[in-house]
């Protein structure tokens, strides 16, 4: 797996971001059962340029919102430690249903456990950008958003012409 897709440690420039704001123009669905954490993540995303951010305490509600998205290119930020439908469950469902979203897992778990969760979610078909250890920071998010922009650009370009 490429390092940028699996690890969010270290500081990277906001490659591909608009005006240094790595979240500009991206719809975010934040799934976090702790209200304080959810609020912190939403505020951080907005500081990083996100204009469309919706928070969910429940994974089922977030999945319904993802199913109604009008276009591809949204990012599901999924907490791994939730009491009912957790981030891995949501990632599995998103992959199985081929929802037009990218996934970022976030948790306070150690990095090796996060990397294992990323691999497991990818094996289930989810388009996982990577994992971020809490707390969310611009340095952790920027490389994952750069990868997301490349994926969305590839979708917009369509399949290669066999011709």
Q: Would you give an account of this structure?
A:
The N terminus is likely disordered. Strand 1, helix 2 and strand 2 form a beta-alpha-beta unit. The relative contact order is 0.20. By secondary structure, the protein is an alpha/beta fold. The longest helix has 20 residues. Helix content is 42%, strand content 18%. The chain has a 5-stranded parallel β-sheet, sandwiched between helices. It is globular. Helix 3 packs parallel to helix 4 and helix 4 packs parallel to helix 5.
Summed up, what is this model?
It contains six helices and five strands, in the order H-E-H-E-H-E-H-E-H-E-H. With 163 residues, it is of the alpha/beta class.
Features:
five-stranded parallel beta sheet, alpha/beta, about 160 residues, 6 helices
Order of neighbouring strands in the sheet with most strands: 2-1-3-4-5
Mean pLDDT: 83
Count every helix, treating DSSP H or I runs of 4 or more residues as helices: 6
- The proportion of strand residues reads 15-25%
Helix/strand-derived class?
A: alpha/beta
Main sheet characteristics: 5 strands, parallel
Distance between the termini: 31 Å
Beta strands, count: 5
Oligomer: single chain
Shape: globular
Q: Over all CA atoms, what is the radius of gyration?
A: 15 Å
Q: Runs with pLDDT <50, length 5+? A: 1-18
Helix content: 40-55%
What's the order of the H and E elements? HEHEHEHEHEH
